[in-house]
UniProtKB/TrEMBL annotation:
The keyword Transferase does not apply. Pfam families: PALP (PF00291). Its cofactor is pyridoxal 5'-phosphate. InterPro entries: Cys_Synth/Cystath_Beta-Synth (IPR050214), TrpB-like_PALP (IPR001926), TrpB-like_PALP_sf (IPR036052). This is 2,3-diaminopropionate biosynthesis protein SbnA. It comes from Glutamicibacter ardleyensis. It comes from the Bacteria.
Length: 330
């Protein structure tokens, strides 16, 4: 399938939200990257990474890509590889969504599951397995989403300019979830090169070591990291929020129930961070955030009450939310 016309194949809608928060003096915009063909903003990353290898001649049709992934990049690489006639091996851990793995397999990818890490560091174990598979498969390549400059380049060339065009060039604050930090680094590079005053807010998971965080157990994929990726050394957000997983769940459900947007855990974390920062944001401000991925792969976790109670030991909805629902019930 070839793209037709002059628009970027990655251009997703940016919409204004009026129901998410009671903040009439603040304009809130959402960049709907859950509408990418593979269901997440990683479609941009995967396209940039694969294109760079093919342009350099290091990768050709019939070749093999091996990459460590928590889910979304694996889905995007599976799709990008299949349309180029390339084999793809996704190295995942037990935190990966079962539905995400099923989607990868549906595209024809091989899923290699790493289990029982002695030190509990899932990312480090996945990267070690990638190195082993590269040695076993001469001529194969890894796209190295954690260190390749083609990761942030995708967001410098598409994500940030698309957002700025959608808001007529005026944006006070952008919230971005972080893992490899490629997205926020690409946005940061764009802001600096164009002399913008936009503040970049990094949203990280509690238990992630990014930006000086303390390592801890994390059950939801796609947000945070167990080791500091190479790209993170260049990322300098204006502010960092660390969000507990139960607040990611509640943020996802708030976004779904108030705006009809079914998003993944990282976007739920952003909703939580915005809610915390909202009282400090001046009236008349314009803020935006990335809806990084679809909530469909999270139906059995984030949107499943039993999973939340069993895995997180919390009630899925806050007491305040339950009280509001009771008051509005007929």
């Amino acid at each position: 399938m070839d793209s037709v016309g002059t628009l970027s194949p990655f251009n997703s809608p940016t919409v204004k939200l009026d129901r998410l928060f009671d903040a009439p003096g603040i304009e809130i915009f959402a960049k709907l990257d859950l509408l990418q063909l593979s269901g997440s903003t990683k479609e941009r990353t995967a396209g940039s990474l694969i294109d760079s290898f093919m342009k350099s001649g290091q990768l050709q049709s019939g070749g093999m890509v091996i990459e460590s992934t928590s889910g979304n990049l694996g889905i995007a690489l599976s799709r990008q590889c299949v349309v180029r006639g390339i084999k793809f091996v996704a190295v995942v851990d037990e935190n990966a969504n079962k539905s995400a793995l099923d989607i990868m397999r549906a595209y024809g990818a091989t899923v290699d599951l790493v289990v029982n890490q002695p030190d509990g560091n899932k990312l480090a174990a996945r990267r070690q397995r990638v190195a082993q598979l590269l040695a076993e498969n001469p001529g194969s390549v890894t796209t190295n989403q954690y260190g390749s400059l083609h990761n942030p380049a995708a967001h410098f060339s598409s994500t940030m300019p698309e957002i700025m065009e959608a808001v007529d060039g005026r944006l006070d604050m952008l919230f971005v979830a972080t893992s490899t930090t490629g997205t926020i680094l690409g946005c940061q590079n764009y802001v600096r090169e164009h002399g913008l005053s936009t503040k970049l807010i990094a949203v990280d998971a509690m238990g992630s070591v990014l930006f000086g965080g303390e390592s801890g157990n994390r059950r939801l994929p796609g947000l945070g990291a167990g080791i500091v990726p190479e790209l993170a050394l260049q990322a300098k957000p204006d502010r960092v929020f660390r969000i507990p997983e139960i607040d990611m769940v509640r943020g996802c459900r708030t976004l779904a129930r108030r705006e009809g947007i079914l998003a993944g855990a990282s976007t739920g974390a952003i909703v939580s961070a915005m809610g915390q920062l909202l009282p400090e944001i001046p009236q008349g401000s314009r803020i935006a955030f990335l809806v990084h991925d679809s909530g469909v792969p999270y139906l059995l976790s984030v949107y499943n009450d039993d999973w939340v109670r069993e895995q997180l030991g919390e009630e899925p909805d806050s007491v305040e939310a339950l009280q509001r629902e009771e008051l509005s019930a007929p």
